[in-house]
């Protein structure tokens, strides 16, 4: 990858669905971009596949789940998001299967977004990504496409969720091979406030990675000629003009 600036992500959309496996996953870079988009008047909804109940070793899941859900809702409020749905799948054991595809399809049919955004899965310093993240990445595109097929997950129609095939692209934050960038200069602080909203989680872990994220955003921003930015990978689902 060269150090040349990447083109800005096209922002001619009005509705977006953000999907992640756990509370706090979208706060690693995506939240600052979400704040930019809500400031533009776009509607952004969140789907959290789990409540992150297995994420705090010293807190039992029956206590941790509600706690982490509350913190995620506060994190969303910091970036202008009030539509937050928790699918309630079991934390730590997500599988790249039809159950996961159905939850993605259900959310797409409900929100009817033009764009879906999610964290990319990749190795970090040679260490493979967490299992739930890999499971989501493996089925995300299939789940988005399932949303448009009446004959897949037929029970969704019984729930009143008609097929929807209007998603034009999936955007992966921190993609291993980024194609575009998002300027977060004006909204980075709100993205970091969203990260800090997970206060109990970070207290147990001994502190947030805020400084690392700020430094990373500044480095990407320098490449782009702005104060801060995040790199994304764009996966079009429709032919591009």
Automatic annotation (TrEMBL):
Superkingdom classification of source: Bacteria
The keyword Coiled coil belongs to this UniProt entry's keyword annotation: no
Pfam annotation, one family: PIG-L
Keyword list, A-Z: Zinc
Lineage: Bacteria, Bacillati, Actinomycetota, Actinomycetes, Kineosporiales
Name of the protein described by the UniProt record: PIG-L deacetylase family protein
């Amino acid at each position: 990858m060269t150090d040349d600036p990447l083109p800005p992500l096209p922002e001619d959309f009005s509705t977006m669905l953000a999907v992640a496996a756990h509370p706090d996953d979208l706060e690693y870079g995506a939240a600052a971009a979400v704040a930019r988009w809500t400031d533009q008047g776009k509607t952004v909804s969140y789907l959290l596949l789990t409540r992150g109940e297995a994420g705090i070793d010293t807190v039992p899941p029956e206590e941790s789940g509600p706690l982490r859900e509350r913190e995620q809702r506060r994190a969303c409020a910091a970036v202008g998001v009030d539509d937050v749905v928790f699918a309630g799948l079991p934390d730590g054991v997500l599988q790249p299967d039809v159950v996961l595809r159905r939850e993605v399809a259900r959310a797409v049919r409900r929100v009817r977004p033009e764009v879906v955004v999610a964290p990319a899965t990749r190795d970090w310093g040679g260490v493979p990504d967490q299992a739930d993240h890999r499971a989501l990445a493996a089925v995300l595109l299939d789940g988005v496409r399932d949303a448009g097929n009446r004959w897949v997950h037929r029970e969704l129609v019984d729930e009143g969720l008609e097929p929807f095939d209007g998603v034009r692209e999936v955007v992966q934050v921190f993609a291993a091979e980024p194609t575009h960038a998002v300027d977060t200069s004006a909204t980075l602080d709100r993205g970091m406030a969203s990260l800090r909203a997970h206060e109990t989680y970070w207290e147990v872990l001994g502190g947030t990675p805020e400084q690392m994220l700020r430094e990373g955003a500044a480095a990407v921003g320098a490449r782009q000629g702005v104060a801060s930015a995040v790199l994304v990978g764009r996966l079009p689902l429709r032919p591009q003009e």
